[in-house]
């Protein structure tokens, strides 16, 4: 009741002008409601369903300087609670000491499989949160990527990399005279014959 009393401060009751000072038009957000303190009714139907005055009724009750607890249903009072549990409760023995019945033991109904694929995903309750991933963000990202690709100027593709040929092995021999004419081969042989080797010292003549 304390929570309803605090929330009722946001509503403004206006007396309808009746002689009993019981009918009010309560203004607030998002709409107005009609409260009848004599019949204990409100157009929001909360008072009628629960037996507890709603926030609109609490605002009207505060206008007439009365307590909301006095307008609750009599079944919600402490006197009714004590009257309900005033009788004694007979004691019962344990389940092992119960008398055996001669009738057949009831069995659980047979489980019938529903048509279609069997669902293995657990069904979530109403108070549980849904999927934390927002699928709308993926569509925005895809749209931005598409616009960026469309506005980007076309560039030539990269040329494929050429692999270098492996160096010749040591066993392969190179002949510089191969493919040369006889005269060219003779001149090259005479030239290489008289070219001194760097750092080579000829032996002394005895």
UniProtKB/TrEMBL annotation:
Keywords assigned by UniProt, alphabetized: Metal-binding, Zinc, Zinc-finger
Region annotated Disordered, chain positions: 107-182
Positions with biased composition (Basic residues): 111-123
Domain SWIM-type: 33-65
Name assigned to this protein: SWIM-type domain-containing protein
Record bears the keyword Ribosomal protein: no
Organism: Arachis hypogaea (Peanut)
Lineage top rank: taxon: Eukaryota
Database matches in InterPro entries: Znf_PMZ (IPR006564), Znf_SWIM (IPR007527)
Example GO molecular function: zinc ion binding
Short name of one Pfam family: SWIM
């Amino acid at each position: 009741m304390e929570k309803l009393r605090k929330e009722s401060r946001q509503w403004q009751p206006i007396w309808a002008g009746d002689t009993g000072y019981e009918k009010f038009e309560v203004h607030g957000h998002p709409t107005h409601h009609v409260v009848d303190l004599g019949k204990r009714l409100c157009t929001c139907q909360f008072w009628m369903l629960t037996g507890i005055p709603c926030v609109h009724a609490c605002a009207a009750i505060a206008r007439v300087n009365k307590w909301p607890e006095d307008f609750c249903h009599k079944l919600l009072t402490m006197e009714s609670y004590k009257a309900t549990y005033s009788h004694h409760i007979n004691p019962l023995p344990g389940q092992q000491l119960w008398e055996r019945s001669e009738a057949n033991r009831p069995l659980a109904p047979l489980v019938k499989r529903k048509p279609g694929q069997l669902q293995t995903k657990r069904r979530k309750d109403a108070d549980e949160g849904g999927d934390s991933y927002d699928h709308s963000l993926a569509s925005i990202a895809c749209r931005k990527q598409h616009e960026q690709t469309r506005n980007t100027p076309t560039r030539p593709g990269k040329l494929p990399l050429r692999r270098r040929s492996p160096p010749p092995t040591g066993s392969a021999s190179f002949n510089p005279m191969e493919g040369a004419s006889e005269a060219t081969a003779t001149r090259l042989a005479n030239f290489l014959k008289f070219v001194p080797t760097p750092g080579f010292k000829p032996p002394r003549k005895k």
